[in-house]
Amino acid sequence: MEGASFVPHEILKRAKALAKGDHPSKAITLIGWQPPPPGFVRLNTYGSVLGNPGQTSAGGVLRDSNGNWIRGFSHNSGITNLLVAELWGLRDRLLLARDLKIRKLIFEIDAKSIVDLLKSKSIGNTDSHPYSALINDCRYLILSFEVASLHHAYWESNFCADLLA
């Protein structure tokens, strides 16, 4: 793990515990949609595919800090793969948020691969990716907001966007 300290006796202790069958207790995480802070809008997007590649759609919702519905959306993305459906859905929703003059945006997507692609350190590191144009469009749109943050969301907290897709 990056940033974790290397403590040999702790590693040995953990390895012995695992060998005995002593597994650490699982943490319980409550999952649900949370409103954004005052002055922010939360954007949840979701992509769906029937087959891979297959018929795709994308949907999402913009809500304010009181949980009020600003805009919902859904569209057919044609026949492609899930990664492309997720990227197109996000790109279109970022354009919508920008057109609605939203300045402070928190957006959540349950596709961890999209979060990882967009959060990678160097903008140039995806130039050889087959969908680099879509990835870079999303990155540049994100920069057009006064404040924007991208987060991975569990499917359970993204249920409304899932229904729209």
TrEMBL record:
Entry-linked InterPro entries: RNase_H-like, RNase_H-like_dom_plant, RNaseH-like_sf, RNaseH_domain, RNaseH_sf
RNase H type-1 domain segment(s): 44-165
An MF annotation (GO) of this entry: nucleic acid binding
SUPFAM superfamilies the record matches: Ribonuclease H-like
Lineage top rank: taxon: Eukaryota
Protein name: RNase H type-1 domain-containing protein
Taxonomic source organism: Fagus sylvatica (Beechnut)
